[in-house]
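>> received
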Amino acid sequence: MLQNIGIPGLILILVIALIIFGPSKLPEIGRAFGSTLKEFKKATNDLVNNDPKDNGRSNDETKVQAIDRTKSNTGS
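>> returned
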């Protein structure tokens, strides 16, 4: 959907935003949008990277447990 906007469409959107919000509010809106996008990406990465079997454990704890299981299986 956003791939079909193109340069003229982006320029039109920016001009309309400039008219509606004014030059003093645009940096604030941009910062708010950027921080919201950063939080959204962080949350999606956390959801994708966490294994449902972890039950809230950190990756370090999971690695240590995996090493312990390997050692107990090999008899070391």
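>> Residues 26-49 form the longest helix (24 residues).
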